[in-house]
Amino acid sequence: MGGPQYWYQVLLGRRDARKASRDAANANLPPPFFNFQQLLDNFQTHGLNLKDLVVLSGGHSIGFARCINFRNRIFNDTNIDPKFAATLRESCPRRGGDNNLAPFDATPSKFDTTYYNALLYKKGLLHSDQELFKGDGCESDSLVQLYSNDPYAFAKDFGVSMIKMGNLKPLTGSYGEIRYNCRKVN
Fold it and tell me: CATH assignment of 22-166, given 3.40.1360.10, 3.90.70.10, 2.60.120.10, 1.10.420.10?
């Protein structure tokens, strides 16, 4: 996926569930309309901190979001670049087109810091993305600026936070299984 060549050691021996559940996977993800305090509270509930919130949000460097998840932002938010909003409105009208996609950043298939650069210019796709950078000098602003300028700091911190997140609520005992091949159930 590109990006800086900093790798983190993936810990082995973690138990995975035997069945996938979309509902369970999405149960603890903050919704795209959360404000900054709601985002931080959500992460802190799981033992994660502000740095984890900002750096793990950088996962939005890859992929797309559905219109239904950013429509309110492009029609109602004031902390959005007007030209950016107008461009998005072309494929995401006020009504309909719920499943139309837009990239989280200008390089949706590359793991890089373009996501953070977009936030500096009020071009965060989701309301929750832009909440990380308000331009008021708070600590999250400083982290966004750091990661936008230093891809190695982003990659290093991302690895640390991914390991931290991966260690949350591990399955133990007879629950789940340690996979022989991480891509499939034993």
Answer: 1.10.420.10
Token pair belonging to 105? 């950043």
Q: Which residue has the tokens 């994660």?
A: 48
3-state secondary structure of 101: strand
Say which amino acid occupies 36. Answer: F
Q: How far is 186 from 180, CA to CA, in rounded Å?
A: 6
User: CB–CB of 15/179 below 8 Å?
Assistant: no
Do residues 36 and 131 touch, judged by C-beta distance below 8 A?
A: yes
The pTM score is: 0.89
Task: Return d(Cα 184, Cα 177) in angstroms, integer.
Answer: 11
pLDDT digits (tens, 9 = 90+) for 76-125: 999 999 999 999 999 999 999 999 999 999 999 999 999 999 999 999 99
CA distance 136 to 13: 43
